[in-house]
Amino acid sequence: MSGEPGKVERFLSRYPVFTRQQFRETVGAGQSTNTADRLLSYHVSTKRIMHAAPGVYAGVPPHLDPASYAPDAVLVASMIRSDGILAYHSALSLHGLAYSEGGEIQILSCGKPGHVDTVCGPVRFVSQPAALRRAERECPPSALLRQIEGLHERRMAGSS
Question: What is the DSSP string of 41-91?
Fold first, then answer.
C-alpha cells in the first residue's frame, strides 16, 4: 500500500506536521478519499506517521524512535484550527520573551473556546478579545500584522 514510490516521503519532508485534508489533497490527489485515508492509516500503523491531535498528524523521522518522538508543539497547535493565532504566553515564549514556563499553548480563534489534548501537551483555544474583533472590522488583519511587525522591529532596534 505505497502508491507512487517516494510520494509519502516527499510529502513528509515538506510537511512535518499536517492535516488529514492536506494529506488527501497532496498524496491522495486523483484517488478516492477512502484510498487516501487507508494510506494514511497504513503509515500510522507502521509508526512512520503519528496522530498528534484531532485531524492533525506528524511524520516521524526515520532515524528516531516513534515511541519517544514528539513533534513541535507549536506546529501541532497551529494546525488544529485554520484561523488560529498563537497568543499570550505562548507567543512570548516563541519569541524568547516568556518570564516563566508555560504548561499549555494558547491560540486565539474565532471558533468556540475549548481545550484539546495533543501528544505535545494541552492546547487552549481562546476567543478573540472584543477590541481585536472590532479592530478587524475597522482595519483588515494584514494592516494589524504590519503594525505589530513595526512595533516588534522598533523593539528589536532598541527604541520604544
Answer: HHHHHTTSEEEEETTEEEEPPTTS-TTT----HHHHHHHHSTT-EE-HHHH
CA distance 46 to 8: 13
Burial 108-134 (b: 16+ CB within 10 A, else e): bbeeeeeebebebeebbbeebeeeeee
Q: Are 39 and 3 in contact (CB under 8 A)?
A: yes
Residue the block writes with cell 515564549: 93
Helix 130-138 vs helix 141-157: crossing angle, to nearest 10? 110
User: At the topology level of CATH, where does 7-59 sit?
Assistant: Arc Repressor Mutant, subunit A (1.10.10)
Specify whether the CB–CB gap between 49 and 69 falls below 8 A: no
| Structure letter (DSSP) for residue 159 | -
Instruction: Give the pTM.
Output: 0.77
Quick: pLDDT tens for 10-35.
Answer: 999 999 999 999 999 999 888 898 99
The C-alpha cell that represents 160 in the structure block: 520604544
How many CB atoms within 10 Å of residue 74? 18
Please state the domain extents for the chain: 7-59, 73-157
